[in-house]
Amino acid sequence: MAKIPLFQYDKEESDTEIGVLHVLKTIIQERRSIKRFNGKPVALSDVAAVLEGASWAPNHGCREPWRFIVAAEAGLEAMQNTLKECTIPKWNQLPEEELKQKTAGFSLPGAFVFVIVPEDPRQKERLEDFSAASALIQNAQLLAWEQGIGTCWKTPAWIDAPKFRQALDVKPGERILAMLQFGYYDELPKAKERTPIEEKITYFG
Q1: Which residue, 114, 121, 115, 122, is CA-closest to 172?
Q2: Exposure pattern of 56-93 as b/e (b: 16+ CB <10 Å)?
Q3: Average pLDDT of the segment spanning 87-104
């Protein structure tokens, strides 16, 4: 079924309002975290458009507590080499097949976005900023999915490693909140069961 961009709907018509809600709910429910990309590159303009839309996420005081490091098109191979250098010890001494296996996780995504947030020394503001950036990441995943682009939100252990932070020029007082992989895929993962929401709700009063 062809996906219809949400902006084409006329919100003044009540039946269309129901249609918009249905489309939005469908995108939320159908989105999957893609673990196996097919290696097709994602256009830099497509990534930028997704981030532009995602930046309308709610954020306290309109602080917009985020910046992005984007690797796509010409920057994709450079990022793959950086990941190899920073995450695989003595990679140049490994047998070719072993190196291929170790780099498989970052050789097939079509683009990378690293979401950088400030680490405010005030606990309340820091949590607000992290929450706002997380909302932006979810927006990005949904907007990408609507365009037929898969994503995967990752927080690998090495994301805070000094060598990797230096390679990305992450400043003191900043943190890499997420590595967001973009790409195309050949196989859609099956949905995982969700706990019935009634089991997660406590009704007060």
Answers
A1: 121
A2: ebebeeeeebbebbbbbeeebeebbebbbebbbeeeee
A3: 90
pLDDT per residue over 157-192, tens digit each?
999 999 999 999 999 999 999 999 999 999 999 999
The two tokens of residue 194 are: 């969700």
pTM, two decimal places: 0.87
Single-letter amino acid, residue 198: E
Q: Which residues contact 18 (CB under 8 A, 6 or more apart)?
A: none
194-to-14, 21, 28, 154, 191 alpha-carbon distances in Å: 30, 20, 13, 20, 9
* pLDDT reading at 18 higher than 90: no
Whole-number Å distance between alpha carbons of 77 and 135: 29
What does the pLDDT look like over 47-84, one tens digit per residue?
999 999 999 999 999 999 999 999 999 999 999 999 99
pLDDT bin (cut points 50, 70, 90) of residue 23 is confident
Tokens 């939005």, residue located: 24
CA distance 181 to 50: 13
CA 191 to CA 145: how far, in whole Å? 15
Distances in whole angstroms, Cα of residue 123 to Cα of each of 49, 64, 65, 95, 129: 32, 17, 14, 46, 10
> Among residues 166, 194, 169, which one has the least CA distance to residue 28?
194
